[in-house]
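An instance follows:
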Amino acid sequence: MDVIARDGVHEIEIQRSRFRCALGRVTTDAEATEFIARVRREHWSATHNCSAFRIGPGGDSQRSSDDGEPAGTAGVPMLEVLVRRGLTDVVAVVTRYFGGTKLGAGGLVRAYGRAVSEAIDAVGVLHRARFATFGIDAGHAEAGRLENALRAAGHRIADVGYGSRVRFTVQVPESGAEAFEHWLAEQTGGAVTATRGAPIELDVPG
């Protein structure tokens, strides 16, 4: 699944109507509901504040609202964009300020979908992936060379701790965990081993 890179706002204008899409990163239904309520309080004078959200590993919890627009012309196309883009843990609120020209059902569907799609492009997308975590202990004499090798190979160093020995915390995509252990053995001649910890999920560039 993918997630938006950050919260953000993007606005478009169609036939003098303003469509302002606010996107937020959320992890629960309650957070999504509060985000929607906050936007509605901020834009209480708008014609409509339509919304959609998806939450969970597979977008298991999802909801949409037309907020007074003709049924199926706002919330549903907004949600369809989130589904089509494979996004989760995201809420979208499109605030419409009516410009005096009716768009018709088809026009509304396109406008609300476009508002969300362009907002997603504006804030960017990250890929949510599962990573294995390794703890690596090395002597101070070898630590500098090992750190350089880790960085040169593109391995993700989450933390470096200094004590009687140097401890690296390295995060590796789960699919490459075994290959990483072989790489480490080759780099250190088998002198350094990695202790595997609990896996985690990280949002990284796609």
In short: The mean pLDDT is 96. The chain is about 35% helix and 40% strand.
